Amino acid sequence: MTNQTARGMKDLLFDEWYKFKYIQQIANKISSFYGFLPAQTPIFEYTEVFTKTLGDSSDIINKEMYTFNDKGGKSITLRPELTAAIVRLFIEKKLQTPIKLFSTGPAFRYERPQKGRQRQFHQINFEFLGVKDPKADIEVISLAQHLLTEFNIDKNVRLEINSLGSSETMVKYREVLTSYFKKFQNDLSEISQNRLIKNPLRILDSKDEKDKLIIFDAPKISDYYTKESLDFFEQILNGLTALDIPYTVNNKLVRGLDYYCHTVFEFITESLGAQGAVFAGGRYDNLVSSVGGKYTPAIGFAGGIERIMELINYSVKERRPICLVPIGKEAGEYALILANKLRRNGLYVICEYNGVLKKRMKKASQVNAKAVLIFGNEELGSKTLKIKNMDTGEEKVIARASIMKNIHQTLLM
Ligand code: HAM
What we know:
By secondary structure, the chain is an alpha+beta fold.
């Protein structure tokens, strides 16, 4: 047995766990200001939930899914993202539109682990289903921006946005791009050559330096927008300006999942090396209908919790305990009762049951106790306790009956 996590997995301990929970809580709180309701789906689904939605040319479908047969022979996949599962839930539960759903939890992709990229990672995910209006796009992007402000990382993250236009635009643009890239077919990287067959738009995503030179002169999608698409996109950009949300239009932004149309966007940082996308999303008007639901325009995005964790400053306020130091057998037994009472009154209590008094007092200061309660037979007889403020060193004897009041007073002295 190897005593280490599987590759690409991460344990969360102590402060990291608090930071993780903090991000989820803030996301839940802020999204509720925008009318999002909580929705949790299981961490695995039947494989078709993903294969039918994410697109044959996406890396996720091609090489990143954790897929296996369960004992009944059904093909199961650990969710590589949450949108497809939310769409499955939306159709299955016949939810009424418009609806805004917030989810959070793990996702799994078999990728090469690196800074900001794990095989199990966690997302905060937001989906707004049922509205085809640029205002929905603006609202969703402003929620993302609001979260960045709340996490105090809005200064090191910038918004890049693009429109993929309507389905006609995408069909036309695909044709034009294919003939452009075909001219350079032999000079393209192997990945891009494959993409040329499956989805030439994805070549625009290439990180290969030689590909980038070819991409530089590639036709731009904006030249193929219909009037409606252009209008839709312009209204979004105007809305962002009205809300003081800075953005850059990046005509080469296409995103790695095939379900998008019209708006796509990423909030990017330079602080995380190659894995710079903190939040990413877009419009997916045809996804619900493509898997058997009614036509339901929709837009959403997801943020990687681990990436946000790398960026934010968050320190847990240290909680200091009250330490009980009983002297003698009976006092030891009473310590259990007293600790129980104090904990049920909301105090953080530890007990130092055994050993020489001096050593136990040393332990209390090692754990940074705020106060120590010392009691032996004498105190048991008189129903009192000796209380020591560990910051001032002051000691006094108090009545057991007034312990809660006295603890608070002692901590103030
Ligand atoms: P995505 O771009 O694949 O989009 O992932 C969204 C975010 O998840 C990324 O920007 C990143 O922060 C985080 N992320 C992705 N992969 C990893 C990884 N291997 N390790 C750590 N973090 C990662 C989606 O998942 C879409 N479902 C977003 C969406 C929602 N579109 C519409 N609605």
